[in-house]
Amino acid sequence: MKLTSEQWAVVRHRKGHARVAAVAGAGKTTTLVARVLHLLQRGVPARRILVLMFNRAAREDFTAKLVAMAPPGQPLPEVRTFHSIGHRLTQSLTRWGWLSPRELLTADWQRERLLRQAVYTCLETADNSTRDAALEAERLEALGNFCDLVKAEMATPAEFYERLDYGPDTLHFVEAFDHYEALLEQHGRMTYADLLYRPLRCLENEEEARARVQGFLDHVIIDEYQDINEAQQRLLSLLTGARAEVMAVGDANQCIYEWRGARPDYMLERFEATFGQATDYPLSMTFRHGHALALTANHAIRNNRRRPDQLCIAAPQNPQTTLDAGQGATRLIEELQAWQHQARPLQQACVLVRNWALSVAVQLQLLRAGIPFRLAREERFVFRLPLVQALAGYLRLSRDARLLHDPAHLFLLLSQPTSFVARERLQTLSLHLAQTQHWPDRQDALLASLKPAQRRTLKRRWELLCELPRLANLPPAKLLEIVVERLDAEKVLKRAAARREKGEEDVRLLDVLIEQADELALAPDELIERQQRPKGEQDDGVLITTVHGAKGLEWPLVVLWGMNEEDFPYYSKDNPLDEERLEEERRLFYVAITRAQERLVMLHDTGDHRPSRFLAESAWQDGNLVAQALANNGRDSLSVKVPALIERYFAALGVELPVECSLSAEADTVAGSPTYYRPGQQVRHDVFGHGEILIVEGDPDNPVIDVRFTHAGRRRLIARRSPLELL
Ligand SMILES: Nc1ncnc2c1ncn2[C@@H]1O[C@H](COP(=O)(O)OP(=O)(O)OP(=O)(O)O)[C@@H](O)[C@H]1O
């Protein structure tokens, strides 16, 4: 394979640190393998080179390519992940006596037991209901994640708690962290997060230990630099010391872990702050997809203010990617069936969603159409979700009143969505209700340990259960709506979730389920039967995954589902978008669309949600139009939304083709298009004077904007109805 001149420049980089800005599909592995071989040829000993990849799959892929391309017998450098380095450092530091020996906790239940103990200790004097709520499985899981993230970000628990949006019932997290740490030490255990955290803390504190691990490397090459966390960054700088030259490769446009502390500008700032000056290299040519998608990706990301000034250019031999957008589940099924009719395997296709909640509609539709699928995370199978099991349980009860006598069934419905009451107490109550069919007397011991609010919640729920058999004839969607309303399910789910985003995802899941019950007109029996005998996932099926889970991967066919405002970009009335979050959502969209090789289909749903602003911003029709013209060697002038971008793209290809601004683009600007108002823009209001736009949200054609006025403070305005002038 002939490397491009940009790739060669990276391979032959001579001296000092280097930063490589690589677009998606730029052949990073090929280039970095060539770089390693070049260093070896230049006489650098293999043991003085370290290559760091972001996960095991990337590491295996890299190693395989390196072995295949190296001359036989050539000693090769180590290719590692941060975890494997941490593992080895832990072993060495333990052998040398700086760290006490600890065993890695591999099973979830072991970890959960320690977390549970930590919560007990710090809520020892709290009342029952507070403790019960803190011991809910979901809350414990959130606490576990919190502890891991504190370590990944090398923050204090209090600092990190401030940074993330945890709910009001999580105040104990900060203290629980310390108890958890003490328990781990006491039991001689460590978690995966400790593999980096412990050696790093030790090396930062012990000069002598540091001296034993530094000075062994001349070259460190690191992939996916844009998303590395604080612990990884610090470990990297420790290992490289003053001597090693660092080559960091990444794409700031694919920085999708901002909530965890990664920032697109870190590619620039953090690197220089840590290592000093670097030579910059672009890898702008993608080998993954055709011009249509390259142009669409360029359009999509151009609305971000914080981004590298770099166009992604499709290599001439790439497949001619086709793009389409549409609406509804029927379209999704048609796309996948058309793929199968072309005798293409479903493993070559992927359905991407912004959030797992959105995958529920996809799963239900595929089940119904008999199209096999597999999930990147098995536990997200729709009929394995506790909330879905519970809702199906409510439907079953409406059809079969005998279930009121089944304690296990009552327990399921009293505990999901959570009633914030401990399991044991609910089990006893369920047994009583199943046997007596009566709510216990006020003085009954069963109620003694419950707070008045818990009693009220459970009593109301029992009354609903008794009423359900009388509602058996209602359509399932209507019945579910009643259940959700009577349980006050939205509020409960928001309260139960330990992070606001999780609560909102659960609420969205409720919506999706009701929409689906309505759209599919699911007969209760069908839903119930599916829930009771869920068909397992199938290996030869289409993959369903989230955009985060698709990082670094590619498929010939990508269907991006859920292209609606509030779903993608993800926001809500309680959780509005600010400029940073909108830009991160846009980078996620960029990652999503650049996974496709031959075909990309973006679908929005038929519900109340408006189509996503990203569809308009991406100008995908222009992408198709320009790609067609390039394929046919067209000569006619092209009417496009953003002529300057197309001209720059043509200049990079060495193509001369006239372009002009399309009428629709002009109309957009006049009418206040989704891209017309953007955070950061300066405005003048006839009454309030000068200000800066902070947030743009709502209908892209008629946005609501938040403006901070110099003299009139912060105001929310309907942009098109306000006497505003853009400066
Ligand atoms: N100079 C080149 N000419 C032709 N094809 C190339 C070139 N460089 C890379 N490729 C091809 O591009 C594809 C992706 O390359 P590679 O596996 O090296 O990149 P990657 O690291 O997986 O992708 P990404 O850049 O998205 O991380 C491969 O099929 C590879 O053969």
Automatic annotation (TrEMBL):
Residues the record lists as binding ATP: A22, V23, A24, G25, A26, G27, K28, T29
InterPro entries documented for this protein: DExx_box_DNA_helicase_dom_sf, DNA_helicase_UvrD-like_C, DNA_helicase_UvrD/REP, P-loop_NTPase, UvrD-like_ATP-bd
Domain of life: Bacteria
GO molecular function: helicase activity; hydrolase activity
Start and end residues of each UvrD-like helicase ATP-binding domain: 1-290
Domain UvrD-like helicase C-terminal intervals: 291-552
Keyword DNA-binding annotated: yes
Class of the enzyme per the UniProt entry, highest EC level: isomerase
Catalytic reactions on record: ATP + H2O = ADP + phosphate + H(+); Couples ATP hydrolysis with the unwinding of duplex DNA by translocating in the 3'-5' direction
PANTHER family: ATP-DEPENDENT DNA HELICASE SRS2 (PTHR11070:SF2), UVRD / RECB / PCRA DNA HELICASE FAMILY MEMBER (PTHR11070)
Protein name per its UniProtKB record: DNA 3'-5' helicase
